[in-house]
Amino acid sequence: MTMALCTGSFDKLIVAGIILSGAVAEDMDVEIYVLLYGAYAFKKENGENIDTVSEYPELKEKLKTSLKEMKIPTWVEFLSTAKELGNVKIYICGTAGKIWGGEKVSDFIDLADDICGIGEYVDSAQNADVHMLI
Amino acid sequence: MTTEELKNLNADKVVDARGTACPGPLLAAKKAIGEMSTGEVMQILSSDEGTKRDIPKWAQKKGHEYLGTVEESGYFIIYMKKG
After folding, report:
1. What domain count does chain A have?
2. What is the pLDDT of residues B51-72, one digit of tens each?
3. Residues ≥6 apart with Cβ < 8 Å to B68
4. Which among B19, B21, B30 has CB closest to A25?
5. What is the ipTM of this complex?
6. A–B: how many Cβ contacts below 8 A?
């Protein structure tokens, strides 16, 4: 499975984490390409601190409370568990990284495996059985 | 298998995923199955409704045998045998 992760909102990142968990349970190899706002969320100083939602901003606190009550992991925890259990690679788009001041993989949270160019993403998407854009 | 037969099974592994929402029980089952041998039986305790359909389908797809589900008060137990 290939996933393009364009979002920097924690709600959509959790969705990505849940889908990723299902893919890993199915023993799928997964490549995640982190684009634009996704790269912002992956910056070392952001990660778990991301507090933006993509829709219904008035429901943000309700969402956060429910997630906590239901013991739903954070998006970083979802991705971390998926990497422990399966073959998941995470690549940060070089251009997106640069936009947010990150040029090296060490500028991003430890889950990132490398910096990549768009050709690698397109090639991965072309060869994947499942391709998602979030 | 009947409920009685399921209840009499000796589980080699018990995964208590009660209180976690999807995909928690599925991931817990996936983690545990790696530590089991072929033919061993696993019980998954869950209170997440979606898991009732999710784990049997996953088990079948991954070559394991879904044995059945027993309803308890406030949760249920899924039985499966590692293939």
Report:
1. 1
2. 999 999 999 999 999 999 999 9
3. B1, B3, B6, B78, B79
4. B30
5. 0.78
6. 30
